[in-house]
Amino acid sequence: MTKRWTTFLAVFGAVMALSLLAMPMRAQEQNPTDTTPKPAASALPPLDTVGDEQPSPDQLLPDSRPLTGVQSPTLGRLESPHSYWEPGLQYSNTIQSTLPGEQSSGLSSTNYLAATVSLLEQWRSSQLALNYSGGGTFSTDKTLGNGYFHQLGATQSFQWTRWQVQFLDQFSYIPDSEFGFGGGTNLGLPGGGISPTAPQTGLSSGYQTLFTSEGPRYNNNFTTQVVYQLSPRASVNASGSYGILRFENSGSINDDNAGANVGYNYQLNREDTIGVQYGFNRYSYVGISQAIDDHVISVAYGKKITGRLALRLFGGPDITTFKVPIANVSRRTSGSGGGSVSYRFSRVDTSVSYNHGVTAGSGAFAGSETDSITGNASRQLTRVWRGQVNFGFARNRDIVSNAAAAGLATAFNSYFAGGGLSRPFGANANLSFAYSANIQTGGQASGCTVPGCGSSFTQHQITLNLQWHTRPLVLR
């Protein structure tokens, strides 16, 4: 047995043992004759939700994220009165049709066996939120083979009267593109999405938006953000970030991304906010002399109604410079912008986001112009069953080759669409299954070197996901 599998089994066994030990602790707490103080691993009562049912608006606190900040807006936040951790287990099976160039033909099956944990640690002026899931993958597809995957989201926040300082990190090591990963289940969320009060980082997950690049890949984004409240209505924020994308298989382009952002926000009234921001990103590539500096100035508008609506729109000019000139041109001017909206009806939750601008290239190009849109909707069908649909589209167009300068740029169109059902079993288990289709077209012109250029395909996936977790175990 290899060293990595020995390590994985040891960690997996430790989490499972701790999960089982939590059961008698919880049973002891529920004994009405027990008058001793609660131990350090006592269990929190469940939230007033049924299965995947979303929290009601009166349970939510206002979302305080700045309009021009690095995090996506939300409908609100849940607050826990305790520090706790919540371990669990997750099993997922995906049956998929094979892609062009893969060694297997017909259908293949990939199993994911993982441990999950969410942690919320609160102090007087700070909070640590952590969500992690990771384990082994076992595939009948010889191209994928057996391996492992990890997903981590961590946020450390400090809050004073006027100041807020945040450190955010989002990491993934997965066998496929993150664009649509998980097939409409919680497999694609760090920690399996089991804890509603330990928030996800809220960083953009659109770092790679095409399916062509094959094999496992590392993706990490570390961001620091500082927010200062100038007055009850006005605030400023500044952030710096550094990200990497690394592929294990040859043929794809590895890149680094260093960025900075400065923004000003002014609250017009209780619901509406306007802002202006400047953003800078530098994209560099391993083994390639090209580097791209991207400067964006945007105006922004946001509207928030706690538990009902979260809207953000932004746009402005985009100036891009190239370290290595393209057909004797070292600068281009274009536009950049996007938006996101989440809206909750009485029984339906919807969200859509769109972005247009220069990106690193998703492993296919040393710089691309990208349009991406993703959306989902879910509805409580019965007391226990919940249905959902999801979709995504991304277009990545090469901007750095001579073909691009001549108007013959390679471009990929990537789509995913699907839907599924989920239901809880008791307070600690959940079953979901979903169908998803991944479609890719384009890549016909020169300038693309990754496997799959010039081929169009449709991959069908059916995913079954089973989760089990303890109730939250109180730390204090």
Characterization of the model:
It is globular, with a radius of gyration of 23 Å. It has an 18-stranded antiparallel barrel. By secondary structure, it is mainly β. It has one domain (3-474): Porin, CATH 2.40.160. The protein has helices at residues 3-29, 402-405; strands at 42-43, 84-97, 107-122, 126-139, 146-159, 163-174, 217-229, 234-247, 255-267, 272-285, 288-305, 309-326, 329-344, 348-359, 368-380, 386-398, 411-425, 429-442, 457-469, 473-474. The chain starts with a helix and ends with a strand. It contains two helices and 20 strands. The model is unreliable at 1-12 and 14-52 (pLDDT under 50).
Detail the topology: elements first, then pairings.
Layout lengths: L2 H27 L12 E2 L40 E14 L9 E16 L3 E14 L6 E14 L3 E12 L42 E13 L4 E14 L7 E13 L4 E14 L2 E18 L3 E18 L2 E16 L3 E12 L8 E13 L5 E13 L3 H4 L5 E15 L3 E14 L14 E13 L3 E2 L2
Antiparallel strand pairs: 1-20, 2-3, 2-19, 2-20, 3-4, 4-5, 5-6, 6-7, 7-8, 8-9, 9-10, 10-11, 11-12, 12-13, 13-14, 14-15, 15-16, 16-17, 17-18, 18-19
Can you describe this structure in just a few lines?
This protein has an 18-stranded antiparallel β-barrel.
**Can you summarize the main beta sheet?**
18 strands, antiparallel, barrel
User: How many structural domains in the coordinates?
Assistant: 1
Pairing-aware structural class of the strands and helices? mainly beta
Extract low-pLDDT stretches.
1-12, 14-52
Q: What integer value in Å does the Rg equal? A: 23 Å
CATH architecture, please?
Beta Barrel
The tally of beta strands, per DSSP, is 20
- Could you tell me the mean pLDDT? 85
Q: What is the H/E string?
A: HEEEEEEEEEEEEEEEEHEEEE
The number of helical runs is: 2
Shape estimate = globular
| CATH fold topology | Porin
State which percent range the strand residues make up: over 45%
Distance between the termini: 40 Å
CATH class: Mainly Beta
State the helicity in percent bands. Answer: under 10%
